[in-house]
Design goal:
The chain is an alpha+beta fold. 35% of the residues lie in helices and 22% in strands. It has 14 helices and 22 strands.
Length: 483
């Protein structure tokens, strides 16, 4: 099927990405549009300003379609389906018309930690949905969404993959059935591009828009983490770790069982790092201006420059340790980020590497608990997201965990997962396994340095694991003074 293509749409916290693939997993063209910075109208509140998610997506779609037609010389009718993935744990408040009644509330907002409570500032709210439901409506006119993007404070039944039929469940979340959208499973068609969206985006009218799951589940599908003993570490604004499973393990203590992007399968995800790669971006923004000219002369980004410097810093950063609580968890809102162990040896390169090591330590400690509960030790890691471009970060993960870590040739795993769901809906693949074999290509593998692994293990066991116990009392007192 030489003239068949699938589109993956991945809207995250920081950007909207559109990738068009052929059926062998080759990228035909792609486009990306940064989102505006999250608005913080008050402490612990976070919103996407105005209609920014939709606005950014339309620009990215226009650019991708222009490249598809004019640079690649392809015909829009040959795109058979679009897989749609939009950042999870956000809340879209919609009017009767389907327009936004209020800016989309981000997953970083404290209001997402509790059931819905109406506020007069929200205006005329008729429907509540995940951000994916709102974008689906803008593209198709349908009031539908994927069932697999409703995690947290929603009356979703993870056994039936549909809304609960228990009215008490809706009351618990301050909702009624007519306030939420109809849902379909991943790989099902949500609707078709309508005339207004076709004009706005350049997409062909009638193109099927296909349901996926929440962003981490789609990324897990697109990264190829389907085999037993393989775990995905997703390096995004929120850094998560997950494995695929076949049961809804309701009594799990150290992970959450979510609906996967493969219908009928589950995704087990442990606690992660809030504002994980955001912390890396923050460091580059704060300390990068001084090396920007040098980076430009070398044809590198500021982050690439810092990665190069970090390669020359010893494992363990000569005692500099970073605790990642730039965005505290709901159960300990007083926590803040901490760097400790400074002395005269330390440079900006030590600080940068310490941020990377802190992410790896945090993920290992969460993932070890999940592995023990599942009685399935991890044998290898697949690392996805932009951070996987960093050789030093990949090596740190392998050294901290003591197992091989690999990255795929295409770093945007969520886009690949979207394309797989789209291809399944369009009948272009025989199975999810066959689609994954076609679309996913393994890239570089990093193997652990034995001496580094031994040192990291001692550092983790004797220092890192105890850090919260020691800092929490101080940070709680500090929060009372400054928050």
């Amino acid at each position: 099927m030489a003239d068949a293509y699938v589109m993956g749409v991945d809207v995250g916290t920081q950007s909207a990405k559109v990738v068009i693939f052929d059926l062998e997993g080759n990228i035909v063209c792609e486009a990306c549009r940064p989102l505006r910075k999250i608005a913080i109208p008050a402490p612990l509140l976070a919103e996407h300003p105005d209609d920014d998610i939709w606005d950014a997506l339309t620009v990215a779609l226009q650019a991708a379609m222009d490249r598809f037609k004019n640079e690649a010389g392809k015909h829009p009718a040959d795109i058979r389906a679009m897989g749609l993935c939009v950042i999870r744990c956000c809340l879209a408040l919609m009017k009767e018309s389907g327009e936004l009644a209020h800016p989309v509330i981000s997953w970083m907002d404290k209001r997402m930690n509790t059931p819905y409570v109406y506020d007069e500032a929200f205006g005329d709210v008729r429907y509540l949905s995940a951000a994916s439901g709102y974008i689906t409506h803008r593209l198709t006119g349908e009031f539908k969404d994927t069932c697999a993007n409703y995690i947290g404070n929603w009356p979703m039944d993870n056994d039936t993959w549909d809304w609960s039929n228990d009215p008490e469940m809706f009351r618990r979340f301050n909702l009624t059935r007519d306030m939420v959208l109809d849902v379909v499973r991943p790989g099902d068609i949500l609707g078709y591009i309508n005339a207004a969206a076709a004009v706005r985006t350049g997409l062909p009218k009638g193109l099927p828009v296909v349901a996926t799951a929440h962003d981490k589940a789609v990324e897990a599908l697109g990264a190829g983490s389907l085999s037993r003993g393989t775990a995905l570490v997703s390096l995004g604004t929120y850094i998560g770790a997950m494995v695929h499973g076949r049961e809804n393990l309701r009594e799990a203590r150290n992970f959450w069982p979510f609906q996967a992007s493969v219908p009928g399968r589950y995704l087990y995800e442990c606690m992660g790092v809030r504002r994980g790669m955001w912390t890396v971006s923050w460091f580059c923004d704060q300390f990068g201006p001084g090396i920007r000219k040098e980076a430009e002369k070398k044809g590198l980004s500021v982050e690439e420059m810092f990665n190069g410097e970090a390669e020359h810093v010893p494992a363990g950063c000569e005692g500099l340790v970073t605790i990642h609580d730039w965005a505290p968890p709901a159960e300990a809102v007083f926590r803040k980020g901490v760097m400790f162990g400074f002395d005269g040896r330390h440079t900006r390169a030590h600080m940068f590497r310490s941020i990377l090591e802190g992410i790896a330590f945090t993920m290992k400690n969460h993932m070890d608990k999940m592995a023990r509960e599942l009685e399935t030790p991890f044998e290898r890691l697949v690392i996805s997201g932009g951070g996987s471009n960093s050789d030093v970060f990949m090596q740190i993960f392998s050294d901290v965990f003591g197992i091989p870590a690999f990255r795929n040739q295409i770093k945007s795993s969520a886009s690949v997962g979207c394309a797989i769901n789209a291809g399944m809906a369009a009948g272009l693949f025989d199975s999810y396994d066959a689609a994954a074999a076609k679309m996913i290509r393994t890239g570089d593998t990093f193997f652990p340095n034995t001496a580094h692994h031994r040192f990291y293990s001692r550092l983790n066991e004797t220092v890192y694991k105890d850090a919260h116990d020691h800092f929490d009392p101080l940070l709680e007192r500090l929060a009372r003074l400054v928050d």
